[in-house]
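Q: Here's a chain of 136 amino acids. Please give me its 3D structure as tokens.
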Amino acid sequence: MAGKPKKETRLPELSRLELDVMDVVWTLGECSSAEVIASYQERRPLAPTTIRTVLANLRKKGYLQPVPTVERGFRLKATVSRESIARRSMRDVFQNLFQGSLRQAIACLLSEEQPSDEEMEEIRQILASQSSKKKR
């Protein structure tokens, strides 16, 4: 994607369908609505008019912006990164469902997923890094 997405300001929440369409846009990068429709329909059948309406709503909400082109239509690009939305979603879940308890959130995740040995080692390294930051 050309250029960095701008830093997230508190944009309106995304519906599940909007998030699914944004996932397609993030995967494709700069893309046309026709490309989004084709890619989305590989995942799940949905009327092209519905997908175009979702794209228009995402533009109104500030998640997408048009990119000028010499093509017949215009191309779209995300204004917010996937990581930014993931962080916001995780913060919201953490605060709303776990009352800010990191221990409860981690216990819930570990009860649902069995991390591999490599993932556990990465988690240990992250914890060690956070611990050393606090000591400074």
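Q: Can you summarize the key feature?
A: The chain has two domains: 16-81, 98-135.
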